[in-house]
Amino acid sequence: MMSQTAPEPTTDGRTTSATTSAASSASGGSASGSAAVSRWRRIAVIVIVASFSITALVGILALLLGSLGDVQWRILGTTSLVGTFSVLALCHLAVVAGAYRWIAAAGLLVSALALLIGLGMIWAPDDWMFRSTFGWQSFGITAVLAVSAAHANLLLILGRRRRPLVRIGLWVTIGLIALLAALLVLEIATEWGISSDGFTRLIGTVAILDVLGTVVVPVLAVFLRDDAGSAATPDAADSTDSAAVPVSSVTAERLDTLRAGRGISRERLIEELVAAADEARRSIS
C-alpha cells in the first residue's frame, strides 16, 4: 500500500501546494486583467486616431473644394475640437492601466462631455440652450476640468517614483493643478463676477507655480532615479505572493525605463510582457 505524503505546511498555516496555487491564480488574474486593459487602450487609441484623421480629411476637403461659408466654418470648428480632445484623451490613456486609473476614467468622462457640449454649440440652432450663457459656461467648466485632468495624468506617469523630493514635488504640483482648476471654474461659474486685482494675481501666481512644478518635477525624476531596492518594490495594490526572479543589471535598467514610461510597477510590467508573449504564441499556433 503506497503512502501519501502530506503537503508541507508553511509558517502561516497554509500548505505549499495551496500557496503555490493561490500565487499562480493571483498572478494569472493580474496578467489577464493587465492584458485586457492594454487591449482596450489600443482599441481606444485606434478609434481616436481614426476619428481625428477622418475629421481632418473632411476639414481639408471643406477648405479646398468649397467657399468659406457657415457650414465650412462649422466643419473646421469640429475638426479643431475633435483634434484637441483627441490629444486630451491620449493623455488620459497614458495612466489608464496604472494605480491612478480612476483619474484617467474621470478625465475621459469629462473630456467626452466637453466634446459633446462643444459640438452642440457648433451645430445646434441659435435658439438652443447650447448657444446660451449656460452652454458657454458648461463648455468652459468641462474644458478646464478636461485639460487639468490631462495635465495631472501626464505627471502621474511619475507616480511610482520613490525619491521623496520627486514625490513631494509631484503631489504639490498636482495640488496646484487642482487649485488652478477650481479658481478658473469659480470664475466661469460666476461669469467673471468675482474678478478683482487680488483674485487675478492669485490665479497668475498659482499658474506660474503650476508651470514651474510641471517643468521641475520631470527634470528631478531624470536625475534622481530610484535605487534598485525601491524600484523593485511594487505598490501594495499591485503586490502578489510571488517569488523574486533575479535578472541582470542591464535587464533591470531596461525594465525600470519601461515601467517609468508606463507608470506601473516592474512586476506589473513583467506580467503584461508575459501575457503579451502568451497571446502571441496562441495566435501563431
TrEMBL record:
Keyword set includes Membrane: yes
Record's keyword terms, sorted: Membrane, Transmembrane, Transmembrane helix
Top-level taxon in the UniProt lineage: Bacteria
Transmembrane segments annotated in the record for this chain: 43-65, 71-95, 102-124, 136-158, 170-190, 202-224
Region of interest (Disordered), residue spans: 1-33
Compositional bias (Low complexity): 15-33
Polar residues: bias regions: 1-14
Protein name, UniProt field: Uncharacterized protein
